């Protein structure tokens, strides 16, 4: 039996964090896919320790197959978060991994194929999250709080390091033991940090709204601008805009497309389409631009007010979201804007 090294200690930490994090997230149904991934990572780390110390390496080599398994497992976990359920046939994404269990002795080939497989699923996962954000933008004024953009960052970051680590894995017979150990340790540490961030962010994530399936049809329609279609929605937009500004409904916290439909008596699809065509923006941006204008006007009238208090009264439910939207609309941070007012 070979001695444990620093990488094995990182792997032991990954096992602990993965198991405990999985248990913590399991209580939320849509996070159970993430729990499964965390337990899979923990199990893979345990297998790595067993193989690297010689306990199971001579029995059967299993660890290369995890590289192929993580891609579809992550993809299904993200689909469960977004859709809140998985169709039975979607589990078939895991099936192609099974035949490769018989060929794990071809380590380099499995690693290369598995990395490409994993990167392909990472791309699919990012596309799902970006699509989810676009659909939320069509329905909610607080979509940033549910968009999971941070998860996109984690997927892209870990995918980049997976690709870099592929170079190490395929050249480990050419590099020194110390350099190989350093690369393995760095990759393991990055994954350990990534799963800790993911556990923390998901544990404080507000419960996601139901997947906006109905909005998808509207969103697809926005990509096809038929001749004179904009003019057909001009009257709808004018009525919407007048009602919204006169009654200041945009000040309603967490305002949704369905709520505006109920308030105005207009169809949700017509509202969304009118905003897309006439304002050339999403429902989220349309509402939040009015909120930012309201904040600016309030600060002019009463410059001694707290910016955050004004933002809350304007309908913003998150300081981070307010700061982001304010910078997008005015080109300045709220503090910079207020400072320039006094100059």
UniProtKB/TrEMBL annotation:
SUPFAM superfamilies in UniProt: Homeodomain-like
Domain (HTH araC/xylS-type): residue spans on this chain: 241-340
Keyword Transmembrane among UniProt keywords: yes
UniProt keywords, alphabetically: DNA-binding, Membrane, Transcription, Transcription regulation, Transmembrane, Transmembrane helix
TM ranges: 6-26, 33-50, 62-82, 119-136, 148-169, 181-202
Signal peptide feature range: none
Domain of life: Bacteria
InterPro entries: Homeodomain-like_sf (IPR009057), HTH_AraC (IPR018060), HTH_AraC-typ_CS (IPR018062), Tscrpt_reg_AraC-type_HTH (IPR020449)
Gene Ontology molecular function terms on file: DNA-binding transcription factor activity; sequence-specific DNA binding
Protein name as annotated: HTH araC/xylS-type domain-containing protein
The species this protein was found in: Shewanella colwelliana
């Amino acid at each position: 039996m070979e001695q444990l090294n620093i990488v094995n200690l990182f792997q032991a930490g990954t096992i602990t964090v993965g198991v405990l994090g999985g248990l913590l997230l399991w209580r939320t149904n849509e996070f159970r896919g993430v729990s499964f991934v965390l337990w899979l990572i923990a199990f893979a780390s345990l297998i790595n320790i067993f193989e690297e110390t010689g306990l199971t390496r001579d029995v059967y080599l299993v660890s290369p197959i995890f590289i192929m398994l993580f891609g579809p497992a992550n993809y299904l976990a993200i689909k469960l978060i977004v859709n809140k359920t998985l169709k039975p046939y979607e589990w078939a994404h895991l099936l192609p991994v099974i035949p490769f269990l018989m060929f794990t002795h071809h380590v380099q080939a499995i690693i290369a194929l598995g990395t490409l497989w994993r990167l392909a699923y990472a791309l699919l996962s990012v596309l799902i999250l970006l699509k989810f954000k676009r659909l939320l933008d069509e329905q909610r004024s607080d979509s940033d709080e549910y968009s999971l953009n941070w998860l996109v960052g984690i997927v892209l970051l870990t995918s980049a390091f997976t690709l870099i680590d592929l170079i190490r894995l395929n050249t480990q017979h050419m590099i020194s033991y110390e350099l190989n150990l350093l690369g393995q340790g760095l990759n393991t540490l990055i994954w350990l940090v990534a799963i800790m961030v993911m556990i923390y962010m998901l544990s404080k994530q507000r419960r996601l709204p139901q997947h906006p399936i109905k909005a998808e049809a509207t969103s697809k329609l926005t990509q096809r601008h038929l001749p004179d279609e904009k003019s057909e929605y001009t009257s709808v937009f004018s009525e919407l805009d007048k009602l919204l500004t006169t009654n200041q409904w945009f000040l309603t916290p967490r305002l949704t497309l369905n709520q505006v439909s109920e308030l105005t008596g207009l169809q949700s699809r017509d509202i969304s389409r009118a905003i897309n065509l006439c304002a050339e923006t999403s429902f989220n941006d349309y509402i939040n631009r009015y909120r930012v204008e309201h904040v600016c006007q309030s600060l002019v009238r009463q410059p001694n007010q707290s910016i955050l208090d004004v933002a809350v009264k304007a309908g913003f439910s998150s300081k981070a979201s307010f700061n982001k939207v304010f910078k997008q609309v005015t080109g300045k941070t709220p503090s910079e804007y207020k400072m320039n007012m006094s100059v």
